[in-house]
Design goal:
By secondary structure, the protein is an alpha+beta fold. It has two helices and seven strands; from the N terminus they run αβββββαββ. It has a four-stranded antiparallel beta sheet. It has a three-stranded antiparallel beta sheet with strand order 3-4-5.
Length: 126
């Protein structure tokens, strides 16, 4: 008389692979890395995306000349631009998700995007 096994070797393999895959996906999704913020730089012709923890200085061509954007120590800023008002340079360094600066005459836009730790206070009211 032949006995039927409840679990066959292939069944065990499928269960093990499913468990490993579930654990790997859970580790990626719930890792909570803070370095997931990135800088998006848009010009009329192109879009660049760099991690916020990069150290980089990039010249971006616009309709009236070159705008220089610097990423350093978890912050980014427009450091020079050919526009008259220099409001984009005066905006200073950006460090938090959602902050942005733009050189409107040169059509350059800089934005910080990514996962926020949830601990930063956007505004307070009394």
């Amino acid at each position: 008389m032949k006995r039927n096994k409840i679990l066959k070797p292939l069944d065990i393999l499928v269960i093990v692979l499913a468990t490993v895959l579930t654990a790997a996906i859970g580790g990626v999704v719930y890792s909570g890395e803070s370095s997931s913020s990135h800088v998006t730089i848009r010009s009329p012709d192109k879009t660049w995306v760099y991690p916020l923890d990069t150290e980089l200085r990039i010249s971006v061509a616009g309709p009236i000349g070159e705008t220089t954007v610097e990423i350093n120590r978890g912050r980014t800023a427009i450091v020079s631009s050919p526009c008259d008002g220099q409001t984009c340079v005066a905006a200073g360094a950006l460090a938090r998700n959602g902050q942005w600066a733009a050189c409107l005459p040169n059509r350059i836009f800089v934005l910080i995007e990514g996962v926020d730790g949830g601990n930063a206070i956007d505004a307070a009211s009394w």
